[in-house]
UniProtKB/TrEMBL annotation:
CDD domains: KH-I
Polar residues composition-biased segments: 26-42
Annotated segments matching region Disordered: 1-49
SUPFAM superfamilies: Eukaryotic type KH-domain (KH-domain type I) (SSF54791)
Pfam families xrefs: KH_1 (PF00013)
Annotated protein name in UniProt: K Homology domain-containing protein
Length: 377
């Protein structure tokens, strides 16, 4: 393994804002439902409008393990490739910081499930670019010291894909999706029924790593197939994870590139999303997770709701504590008077991420509502 590695943050490779727009913050690295908590309703008509505007499409965050060489290819010259993926698919996408002595990086992609699936399918295609027409079927795969980067599945052969041309076979790629052990159980299904259906329906190969990624509860789910087929499988996997969101999973540690000598407790310190440094989740105490979000002062009232009703509903739904920082005197130095800090505390990482995602979705809804009102004036 890459006997290596250190810090934790997801580095956004572009100018994404921290409003949670275009996608819910990952890093649930799993699933985040996009149903926002409705604001306090006034008249029946206004309430219906509020409710309609607060309903958004489901969002997901997927994490993918990449080698340094693959990461460079995804980033592209001066970040052009990853920026193109971001703009075309309207997702938040970024990579963990490159660590000295580490041969891997983690790509995080968050947004609407169709957009995330398309983005990762595009990445499969990008990683295969330049191999079409070459004798790639006979070339041995590159060997890595960090064995999780080495393929689990054998390369595709003509015998397996008799209906495909050599050019099409050369387009078959592999994606190393990172999933927690609980998520993997959901994907496999009872008696392996779900994973078998995924493979047969979409014409792909899927296999999970036997080992957990270092100091984590995550494993690699390797998906091999044509980019379009990988996209379709990711759509279905996202649906499975979203539909089973209510299952109470134990707090599971996420993997990040780090040195083996680092403290295991540091393994739970994660970037909250690819949207910026203003939000983050960390292991606050041994068994309590914490997220902090900066909300523009002008939106605090709408986010909190009348008499705090909206925040109260969010606390109850996500089973978390949400603390709103008191309004700061603009005359006080060394503070940010234009933003208010919201602190989310919870015993489970998943619950904290859910609250964070929904809070950002509510902010997104309020921003869009104000834009709409200004446009009508």
């Amino acid at each position: 393994m890459s006997d290596m590695n250190d810090p934790n943050s997801i580095v956004p490779l572009g100018g994404s804002s921290c409003t949670g727009r275009d996608a819910a913050t990952e890093t649930v690295t799993s699933s985040s439902p996009a149903t926002a908590v409705p604001a306090q309703q006034g008249s029946k008509e206004e309430g219906n409008v509020e409710l309609r505007e607060s309903i958004t499409l489901p969002t997901i965050n997927h994490r993918v393990l990449l080698s340094l060489k693959e990461s460079a290819k995804v980033i592209g010259t001066k970040g052009s490739t990853i920026q193109s993926i971001r703009e075309i698919n309207h997702v938040k996408i970024g990579l963990s910081e490159k660590q000295l002595g580490c041969s891997d990086r983690v790509l995080s992609c968050a947004g609407r499930i169709i957009n995330v699936a398309n983005s990762l399918g595009q990445i499969v295609s990008i990683l295969k670019e330049g191999s079409a027409g070459s004798p790639s079927l006979s070339l041995p795969a590159e060997k890595y010291a960090f064995h999780f980067l080495n393929p689990i599945l054998p390369p595709p052969t003509r015998e397996e894909f008799k209906d495909l041309s050599l050019d099409e076979i050369n387009k078959i790629g592999t994606l190393r999706l990172m999933v927690t052990n609980s998520q993997l159980s959901s994907i496999i299904g009872k008696g392996g029924s779900r994973i078998k259906s995924l493979k047969e329906r979409h014409g792909v190969k899927i296999v999970a790593s036997r080992d957990f990624l270092p100091d984590s509860d995550e494993r690699i789910l390797e998906i091999q197939g044509l980019p379009r087929a990988v996209t379709d499988v990711l759509l279905k996997i996202s649906e499975i994870l979203l539909n089973e969101l209510d299952i109470t999973f134990a707090s599971e540690r996420r993997y990040y590139p780090h040195l083996r000598s680092s403290s295991p407790s540091n393994a739970v310190t994660l970037a909250a999303s690819t949207s910026g440094v203003q939000i983050g989740v960390s292991n606050y105490l041994n068994n309590e997770f914490k997220a902090t979000i900066k909300i523009p002062e002008s939106y605090v009232g709408a986010i909190a709701g009348r008499r705090g009703n909206r925040i109260a509903n969010l606390r109850k739904f996500t089973k978390t504590k949400i603390i709103v920082e008191k309004k700061i005197d603009k005359n006080v130095t060394d503070v940010d008077p234009d933003n208010r800090t919201f602190i989310i505390l919870g015993d489970h990482f998943k619950n904290v991420k859910l609250a964070e995602s929904m809070l950002l979705k509510n902010l997104d809804v309020e921003i869009e509502k104000r834009k709409s009102r200004l446009a009508k004036k």
